[in-house]
Design brief:
Shape: rod-shaped
Helix content: over 70%
Strand content: under 5%
Largest sheet: none
Number of helices: 5
Number of strands: 0
Length: 159
């Protein structure tokens, strides 16, 4: 083979290697940039979610504050209605699955009629209290405001 052919082959191989390395580096750089943009978008969406929760959740705390304290049927029904109206707004879009389940569990117990003519029994009040606290705990969890010891609290099934 002549020197010109060997030179051309070497130049072709070097050119091919450089092109391959450039392609690999560009692909990796594009992937890293895409991942960075995805993380930024996720952070922005998470921030918006937390802001919506921070704007909506305090109202649920105000509504549920009197629950579990010797409330009458009218008070419990009023609280239940106010809580349903609260959830019917945009908060439905930002409640986590666990908070939504705790909401439904609380609503279920609030629908029940008092066991005695004078009002709710102590067992019913205790169950309302526990489910109220579980609901509020799940709202705190949504906001990242729970402490480890809160996570260990069990709800006693009083049925």
């Amino acid at each position: 083979m002549s020197n010109e052919v060997i030179s051309a082959l070497i130049a072709g191989v070097v050119s091919l290697i450089v092109s391959l390395l450039t392609f690999l580096l560009t692909t990796k750089q594009m992937r890293l940039e895409r991942e960075k943009l995805e993380r930024q978008l996720e952070r922005q969406l998470t921030e918006r979610l937390y802001n919506l929760r921070l704007a909506s959740y305090p109202e649920a705390f105000r509504i549920t504050e009197p629950l579990g304290k010797k409330s009458g049927l009218a008070d419990v029904r009023s609280i239940s209605n106010r809580l349903r109206n609260w959830k019917a707004a945009e908060v439905s879009l930002v409640l986590s699955y666990r908070a939504r389940q705790a909401f439904y569990d609380l609503q279920e117990v609030l629908k029940k009629n008092p066991e005695t003519k004078s009002g709710f029994s102590d067992v019913q009040i205790q169950k309302i209290w526990h489910l109220r606290n579980r609901f509020r705990g799940e709202l705190r969890r949504d906001l990242g405001l729970m402490f480890e010891e809160d996570d260990d609290n069990e709800i006693i099934d009083l049925e």
